[in-house]
Amino acid sequence: MKLVPSVDLNDFISGDPIKKQKFVDEIGKAYEDIGFVALKGHFLDDALVENLYKEVKNFFSLPLETKQTYEIPGIGGQRGYVSFGKESAKGKKEGDLKEFWHFGQYVENDAEREAEYPKNVLVEELPEFNNIGKEAYKMLEKTAKYVLRALALHLNLEETYFDQYIHNGNSILRPIHYPPITSEPKEAVRAAAHGDINLITLLMGAQGRGLQVQNHKGEWIDAIAEPDELMINVGDMLSRHTNNKLKSTIHRVINPPKELWGTSRYSIPFFMHPISDMKLNVLKGCIDDNNPKQFDDITAGEFLTERLIELGLIKK
Ligand SMILES: O=C(O)CCC(=O)C(=O)O
Ligand SMILES: [Fe+2]
């Protein structure tokens, strides 16, 4: 049984109103149910994906001392390198078995917003890593914009409702390396069960086994995408904003069986965040007698800070 539904973004941008509506209905239904889709027809071409993986592998292969020169204190790991074991899922004390990098927004024509965000960190040893990261960031952001337009229509909002909040938004592209496992990990896993913080997440690299999502019955389901698909899921910000009509599904990355401990896993999520002043207050259209308002009013900025403290990335 295929458990994560597949959709094709070409339907949405085809100009054919019937196909467009079909996409809106399919993704809307999937997000009210399992909270995940596998999406074809995104804006990353094969060469970009291949080069991105090559550069990401080059970066994580650098000596630890070199990588650590890019670990910047005081910014909650929001740009540059975060070393192995630093991040733990909300409520968990063991660190995840991963190291990662963060590319952030390339702000256009807004000095105030630019001053709000930490600067992107450039890797001197790998000029192409910086260039390809920026290109992938832009293409994932563009893909996410169309997905959010479809969701706006599903929620009976203006199609471009989210555009104002995501332009120059606080999105993050996070290449992750889960290194080979060299000793009994005990309680630690590659990524402990969690919901994502942001509006939506676009994940490259869910082709191999490892990623699992939890269904309504509490069962863990393998989420595996085709090589040309991105896995796209709802995050907690969008779930709050829609009064949990759209579901932010708990997911995790399990450790491989012992015979595969020697292999690395690479994955590259793009966390689509809005600008920090977006109000995540529950939309009026998502409240009714059967589903009264479930969440307090909060801005995206306040919510993010709360969660980064819980993840151990910023200290109180
Ligand atoms: O590595 C993966 O496949 C998923 C990672 C993930 O869920 C996350 O970083 O939020
Ligand atoms: Fe996640």
Automatic annotation (TrEMBL):
Spans traversing the lipid bilayer: none
UniProt cross-references to PROSITE patterns, sorted A to Z? FE2OG_OXY
* GO MF terms, alphabetically ordered: metal ion binding; oxidoreductase activity
Keyword field: Iron, Metal-binding, Oxidoreductase
Limits of the Fe2OG dioxygenase domain: 168-274
Q: Which Gene3D superfamilies match?
A: B-lactam Antibiotic, Isopenicillin N Synthase, Chain (2.60.120.330)
Is Iron one of the keywords? yes
- Homology family: Belongs to the iron/ascorbate-dependent oxidoreductase family.
Classification via Pfam families:
2OG-FeII_Oxy (PF03171), DIOX_N (PF14226)
Tell me which domain of life the UniProt entry assigns to the organism this sequence originates from.
Bacteria
* Name listed for the protein in its UniProt record: Flavonol synthase
